[in-house]
Amino acid sequence: xxxxxxxxxxxxxxEAEEKGFIRTAASAxxxxxxxxxxxxxxxxxxxxxxxxxxxxxxxxxxxxxxIESILISTNKWIKxxxxxxxxxxxxxxxxxxxxx
Length: 100
Known about the structure:
Layout: H1 6-18, H2 25-80, H3 82-97
């Protein structure tokens, strides 16, 4: 098509336009409106999740205190009973090889 020069380019453009591949002023305007709508939705979504986070933050923060305490206690217990933990790990790893 390009070897036909300007006439080939015009034919190529006409075919692309007929098949809907040429961006018109109307389609560009619609594309811009769609992009703006998605941008607004994204902003609203961010506000929604921010509000949701603020609403549940007190409950989540309250729940972290006992969890933190459990994790600290568990860590201390593991350090105090390191030999027992190693023995349990050895038994568990061996049992993986001796399944019936």
